[in-house]
């Protein structure tokens, strides 16, 4: 990235800057000419804010030789200016990066319409101010009425000076405006006293700009603009127009600018929405209309062919109330005679819509064809053209020999002219074929033969008609070819978009979206494409060719970071960070930054207008899909949080319920032994001590259950799994059971083949132990417990014990399996915390737990995925 064209973003800013701060407020000190006191008033108000405890700094104040103004600079801290070298001059500009780092409450930036020097990050100072506002910093600034974009043509007419430094009206949309006003006579007195400019400049200004008539006009414009702005801010101006429609022609750029500015003033005055329809006749006309977009219009492009019907249908569909268009007053007489004006046709078709005509004199631009464009196709098309005309002559000669009739001979030439138009490039060859066909027909087939002289009555008219028909047919064929090529390109783009949407439907995470997008766009555009996430980190990069990456440098990442943070386009081809190797577009949905798309852009890889429009369409799709994935992720997190809360609630209820019984029993026995010491029989004492031991062992097993839960990651309800043979897990369970219940008989039935399950073996062992222990308690001492393992679509572990659970208790257990709001059954009589643990363990393994009662038996089934 060239240092001469690019200001990079410091690395520390990448680390310190945050996303999404509340936008700062803009306060504009507005006047109608230099010297009215805008800077003086701004500094005075800044001192008042400083006394109120606000952190106020000076970002930039235009150097003035005005003592009163310079005295107000004292006491206000100023951030050191940034230096730029330009044509052996040292220029000073506000240090935007430093101001963002300091983040004061208020920054003073003078001369809002100023153009930055080469090497600055942004082309215009108001773009610098926009960065400060996006960082949450309030900015005080100054501007004169002649620098307002929508008033540029009126100011030029009043002052006879074209003002090139302008600020779009949309920039002031939410600004607070303070008008600084003086009488024109008082301003002229200040100028004559040398309080505004030096002597020579003052004399020049008095002769040119500072005349009473011009100052009165400018003052009126400033007051009217301020009034409209205040009415809009306060909601005092009700909308009286539903929709304004501006029609511009790309062949009349000056007229287009005047129509756009006129409509912008009307729209701002009445608070209306408006759309600009650009009729494109020139191939190299951009689809963007920057002036209209800066002034807040929506821009629509249509081709010149059949544009009238498109305009009529669009006006009806959108309910346009007013149409604004230019009127060319220098139209030629034959144009008025043979071509009906567009406004007259619109009045006939749209009699309920008002049409405003803006008169203008401008020479219409015509397409300029270069030599290479004119002779597109070269030797191939030249050979093909003359070869087909020769073949047409031979075929016509044969048809004449066979007496097909003279009226059919000229149709052969017209047919071959059509073939030339179909298989050659551009208009030249088909036009040349039309002329040569007429000459050949006259030379070979019109008496006298082999002469261009025509004696036969009516033949000159016939030849002229033949030439006209041939030219019209060739022109129509070329236009159809062009439309077919455009349709083919759009079809290819829609095919890519369709495939991309199918990929989006199948993706489940953001990374897949990034990868799919860069892959398809790189294939479509034949260049390098990169995607960055909402934090400015590179997530995917793809190129259609094997070359060194152009979009992975530190400076490129800084540009992408800036685009995400400011939600504006930047890079090559824009006014911001123009030295980048790529063109970067923000991915935004509902004002929320979601990322940035970077596309390689240089002299070898230019971006056509159709490609830019396509990229903006794709960005809309990306933003929607990323938001959907984000919402799905948030929903999943909410569901997981609900699951965690359910687990916590179940465990808390189970623990509080199950701990009470054994602790109460132990406490009661201990109290009995303490009060009856020496008076209790030995057999009774042994029985009571046995009860204490039994209850203590129950508490130990319950603690083991709780420790098992700690092995589960409650953040995502996941466990660490490994491939384990089911036989080893069952063997470990049986070993543990023999220690606790040595008399219990367990009948195990295992499959012949070796089965592996992907589980946490310790947790599954604990779950099986809990269920078998339940069978020991509910079954009879002389009946065995059956443990069966078999494989269906999943691995099924079945535990059956003799003894049917009572209906009421069975319903409670079923409720615990399906409804977490039920209170767990008592651990001594049901499953209690044991069931909660089993449910949690099986759920963490993405398995299923089911219960079934038969006549005289109860069956628990665990379903595990392999």
Provide a descriptive summary of the structure in words:
- With 866 residues, the protein is α/β, with parallel strands linked by helices.
- The two termini are 54 Å apart.
- Strands 2-5-6-1-7 form a 5-stranded parallel β-sheet, with helices on both faces.
- Helix 11 links the parallel strand 9 (274-280) and strand 10 (298-303).
- Helix 17 packs parallel to helix 19, helix 19 (459-506) runs parallel beside helix 22 (609-675) and helix 23 packs parallel to helix 27.
- The longest helix has 67 residues, at 609-675.
Into which percent range does the helicity of residues fall?
40-55%
Distance between the termini: 54 Å
Could you tell me the radius of gyration in angstroms? 42 Å
Oligomer: single chain
- Describe the global form: flat
Number of helices: 27
Summarize the topology.
Layout: H1 11-16, E1 26-31, H2 38-51, E2 56-60, H3 67-71, E3 82-86, E4 89-93, H4 96-102, E5 106-109, H5 125-134, E6 138-144, H6 152-159, E7 176-179, H7 184-192, H8 199-207, H9 212-234, E8 244-249, H10 253-270, E9 274-280, H11 290-294, E10 298-303, H12 307-318, E11 322-328, H13 333-338, H14 342-349, E12 354-360, H15 371-374, H16 378-401, H17 406-423, H18 428-445, H19 459-506, H20 510-525, E13 529-532, E14 538-542, H21 554-566, E15 570-571, E16 582-589, E17 592-600, H22 609-675, H23 682-709, E18 722-725, H24 726-740, E19 746-749, E20 756-759, H25 761-778, E21 785-791, E22 795-802, H26 807-818, H27 833-844, E23 848-854, E24 857-864
Parallel strand pairs: 1-6, 1-7, 2-5, 5-6, 8-9, 8-11, 9-10, 11-12, 19-21
Antiparallel strand pairs: 3-4, 13-14, 13-17, 15-16, 16-17, 18-20, 21-22, 22-24, 23-24
